[in-house]
Amino acid sequence: MSAVSEERAPSSQRGERAAWRRLLREPAAIIGGVIVGGFVLIAIFAPVIAPYDPNASDWMTIREAPSLAHLFGTDDLGRDVLSRVIFGARASLAAGFLSVTIALAIGLPLGVAAGYFGGVTDMAIARIADALLACPFLVLAIALAAFLGPSLQNAMIAIGVSATPIFIRLARGQTLAVRAEDYISAAQSLGLPHAKIMASHILPNILPPIVVQATLTTAIAVLAEASLAFLGLGQAPPDPSWGSMLDAARQFLVEAPWMAVWPGLAIVVVVVGFNLLGDALNDSLNPLD
Amino acid sequence: MIRFLASRLAVAIPTLLLVSVLVFGLQKLLPGDPALALAGEERNPDVIAYLRAKYQFDRPIPIQYASWLGAFLQGDLGVSVRTRLPIGAMVAEKLPVTVELAVLSMIFAIVTGVPAGVLAALRRGSIWDHLVSVFGLAGLSIPSFWLGIMLILLFSVRLGWLPSGGYTPFFENPVENLRAMAMPSFVLGAAAAAIIMRHTRSSMLTVLKQDYVRTARAKGLANGAVVFTHALRNGLIPVVTLGALQFGQLLSGAVLTEQVFGIPGFGKMIVDGVFGRDYAVVQAVVMIAAAFFLLMSFLADLAYALLNPRLRA
């Protein structure tokens, strides 16, 4: 760590501690954290928790209403809906986290570079971000997923690329604000390389709004994955995904309405969790807003 | 103000050109012979030869792009390989359906979102404020397609009050049209209502703290007059801008809503295009959606410039 950042360290550590304290006092943060954490555990321990094999069809139990044997009922192929909802958490959360990771991995360096270097670099990057932002998010994700071919992996790439301009724009704006600070001029006058200044001095200082946006974008990504799977552009059958379960349930609304209720509720609860967490992070990291 | 709008237009046009480069570039992602890929399931050599000649796939990429864009700007959006209809005619048929859906959704979003947001700001911390927060969070978190399915389950399957899908043109039978559009408009408008609600609340809270509102109160104006003639007028400026941007985003949501309710609109056209491997349709739809969004952004800027006295000069 350089002298410049060491000099700032104590106050930023105090700020971090205060932000954590504010976060832990927010009921929204606790509820959101419990929901997200709970679903992460469900996804990890799905094979242990799920009462049945999620893909095992049983012709004797087709479209059975919820009972003690099958708490959420069974689907059109006699598969246990609860087990499929539990395993479906894997596709949803993987899509949420990985697509946001893709968006961050592309968007952050581009946005910081645009804001830091300015000039032609900035113009080129900002214009590309504007062009991507002009395409409605889901339409772009659908078009990309269609061109890449339907699979969970391609859905994640499509959602990640579609969400990238959000982070380019945010990182660029934040960098523009930070670039004028004295400690950046100090680092530049010490002759530090640009990459080092961007990574060690700019990035840590623009992180709070990025963390908030990443959390809220994870909610959007979970919804987008469910939407793509609902349209048949996500997880390939027979592996469960909440979106594709809802698509299948549409055919049996009269005979087996429970098939449509549980996967949808699971999506709502996870998305509420990420949104609560994002709002609470926003309140605790930006207390002046 | 003219300079402000000209500068916005100067950004919008290159952005649209860049979108066209991206949309054209998407086609290059397709593996193998682009003419074969564009032809989709079609294997007729005449069709493939026609596509190869039309899009000049044997020429350098910049020339291919220029000829594609040239045709697009002249209104030649290509031919759908699935329906064999000109894409321009398909858009002309489907777009009004989606525009009606979007307009109805926006009316719903404004009629519910603005008063709820104002109420929450005026009664900050009350039960109304908490209810608005809960509805706002729900509107942002409930997937539109699931909400649609649940409404069909309740109002069509259980109660039999509303049709579960389909579309009747307004001028053919206005009552049937509105009955068929009621649930889709609610579903599509719910997220926009939530966003408008949250922004109206925070914008009103900011405005209500301003000095001129305090002055209006201090000179003894009735609360209604303070809120409606002084605070609301300024508090709604960002909401108008946001509303225009939301309207531009509704096309995105229309894709799912139209799929759930079987509405033959623009959104369903993109899904059918994707599954029919009808890439020319997908390209055209993305271009039109982007152009529509940029138009709405421009109108948002225009509204902002007209409403904000500081930009009126």
List keywords for this structure.
heterodimer, A: 289 residues, mainly alpha, MetI-like fold, 76% helix, elongated, disordered N terminus, B: 313 residues, 2 domains, 14 helices, 79% helix
What this model shows, in words?
The complex is a heterodimer of chains A (289) and B (313). With 289 residues, chain A is mainly alpha-helical. Chain A has one domain (14-285): MetI-like fold (Orthogonal Bundle). Chain A is built from eleven helices and no strands. Chain A has helices at residues 3-25, 27-44, 46-49, 81-117, 119-134, 137-148, 152-179, 182-189, 194-230, 242-249, 258-285. Chain A is elongated. The two termini of chain A are 31 Å apart. The longest helix of chain B has 36 residues, at 87-122. Chain B has helices at 2-29, 34-39, 45-54, 61-73, 87-122, 127-141, 144-158, 174-208, 211-218, 223-235, 237-261, 266-275, 279-307, 309-312. Chain B is built from 14 helices and no strands. The termini of chain B are close together. Helix content of chain B is 79%, strand content 0%. The A-B interface holds A 127-128, 130-132, 134-140, 142-144, 146-148, 219, 223, 226-227, 230-233, 246, 249-250, 253-254, 257, 260-261, 263-264, 267-268, 271-272, 275-276 and B 11, 14-16, 18-19, 21-22, 26-27, 29-30, 137-138, 140-143, 145-146, 149-150, 152-153, 157, 248-249, 251-253, 255-256, 259-260, 270-271, 274-275, 279, 282, 285-286, 289-290, 293-294, 297.
Question: How many strand units of chain A?
Answer: 0
Strand residues, percent of chain B: under 5%
CATH architecture tag of the largest domain in chain B: Orthogonal Bundle
Distance from N terminus to C terminus of chain A (CA atoms, Å) equals 31 Å
* Number of H/I helices of chain A: 11
Report the helical percentage of chain B.
over 70%
The oligomerization state is: heterodimer
CATH-defined fold name of the largest domain in chain B: MetI-like fold
Unreliable stretches of chain A (pLDDT < 50, length at least 5) are: 1-10
Relative strand content of chain A: under 5%
Q: What general outline of chain B do the C-alpha atoms trace?
A: globular
**How many domains make up the 3D coordinates of chain A?**
1
Global shape of chain A: elongated
- Cα-atom radius of gyration of chain A: 22 Å
CATH superfamily of chain A: MetI-like
The CATH superfamily of the largest domain in chain B is identified as MetI-like
Q: Please give the alpha-carbon distance between the first and last residues of chain B.
A: 6 Å
Main sheet: strands, sense, barrel of chain B: none
